[in-house]
UniProtKB/TrEMBL annotation:
<dbReference type="InterPro" id="IPR029063">
    <property type="entry name" value="SAM-dependent_MTases_sf"/>
</dbReference>
<feature type="domain" description="Methyltransferase type 11">
    <location>
        <begin position="55"/>
        <end position="151"/>
    </location>
</feature>
<dbReference type="GO" id="GO:0008757">
    <property type="term" value="F:S-adenosylmethionine-dependent methyltransferase activity"/>
</dbReference>
<protein>
    <recommendedName>
        <fullName>Methyltransferase type 11 domain-containing protein</fullName>
    </recommendedName>
</protein>
<dbReference type="Pfam" id="PF08241">
    <property type="entry name" value="Methyltransf_11"/>
</dbReference>
<dbReference type="InterPro" id="IPR013216">
    <property type="entry name" value="Methyltransf_11"/>
</dbReference>
């Protein structure tokens, strides 16, 4: 019998193949571009990305790879299914990216392997027996002391949580995904910014958060995003 994560892997493999058939129209999320390259009152990265080791955790269709590579980073990626990894290897065959199969709580890289982990719409996906803290602990494991986590986490008003079953205050089983790709999947979500900060502070310091709330023609996409540093 397939686990929730295996089912999600199959569903996402199909989804990414369908997207790939439409053409190579890949663009990073706005918060990723702004966080990596922008200058703001509460956040800026100094020193650039040249030579830094960056893990794109849950890279999906690989839309962040060109941005990271153009910035000079050494790029690796993790996804939940071999089909997704194979599709990205084919698409980015000429790019120096190290792509592997794994999950948020089981990242197939050594301790302190990365200067930064980019988790764009990914770090809140939970295996059946895992908690959000397990994901954060694993991300911290592969980061060097002082390394950065760049992430997003959905607000509980996000469309994906409609009719979801609450397992605990911050864990939900998805039941009514309008795209039918995540039903049965467990996701972490946070209504309160302070609760998200508390969840992060066990493994990370210097947390800086932002928030985005969009209405895409009836689909509400509301999520926290931010940067945090692995504790030294």
């Amino acid at each position: 019998m397939a686990t929730d994560s295996a089912m999600t892997g199959e569903q996402f493999s199909t989804l990414y193949r369908q997207w790939a058939a439409r053409g190579n129209h890949l663009y990073p999320s706005e918060f990723v571009v702004r966080t990596l390259l922008g200058t703001y009152p509460r956040h800026t990265f100094g020193g650039g990305w040249e030579g830094r080791a960056v893990l794109d955790l849950g890279f999906g269709d690989g839309r962040n790879f060109p941005l990271l590579l153009n910035a000079g980073a050494r790029v690796a990626g993790v996804e939940v299914a071999e089909d997704i990894v194979a599709l990205a290897r084919e698409r980015f065959a000429d790019a120096p990216v190290d792509l592997r199969v794994g999950t948020n709580a089981r990242i197939p890289f050594d301790d302190q392997a990365f200067d930064a982990v980019l988790a764009c719409h990914s770090c809140y996906y939970l295996e059946v027996d895992d908690r959000f803290d397990d994901n954060l602990a694993e991300i911290a494991r592969v980061l060097r002391p002082g390394g950065h986590l760049i992430f997003s986490v959905p607000h509980t008003d996000n469309f994906i949580f409609r009719d979801a079953k609450a397992i605990d205050r911050h864990t939900f089983k998805i039941a009514a995904d309008p795209y039918a790709s995540r039903n049965g999947t467990r996701l972490a979500g946070f209504a309160d910014r302070g609760d998200l900060e508390l969840a992060l502070y066990r493994h990370f310091a210097n947390v800086r958060l932002g928030f985005q709330d969009d209405d895409f023609y009836g689909i509400r996409v509301a999520f926290h995003f931010g940067v945090a540093q692995r504790r030294v």
